[in-house]
Design goal:
The protein is mainly α.
């Protein structure tokens, strides 16, 4: 999946999880009301819908859609896992 398609998929997932319409690529997950429980749900939906594993700690470090899309691109390049210790 290309970067633009990944960002579009992530904005849809974040909008669903956060119940926030109009999530943009530079929006911060936690500034929009995200918390640790919603982060677990979001990561599970990313795994389910995009087929990519990404640990929650990467979301804590890459809090915007654009930054998290980069993490997922790196995961795809590494064979589907963002880093060791995936949840």
């Amino acid at each position: 999946m290309d970067r633009e398609a990944t960002e579009q998929a992530l904005t849809a997932i974040w909008a669903e999880v956060l119940r926030q319409p109009g999530v943009g690529r530079d929006d911060d997950f936690f500034a929009l009301g995200g918390n640790s429980l919603l982060a677990v749900r979001m990561v599970a939906l990313v795994r389910e819908r995009l087929g990519t594993e990404a640990p929650i700690q990467r979301l804590l470090q890459s809090r915007t859609v654009a930054e998290f899309a980069q993490v997922l691109a790196e995961a795809d390049a590494a064979g589907g896992q963002a880093e060791e210790g995936v949840i």
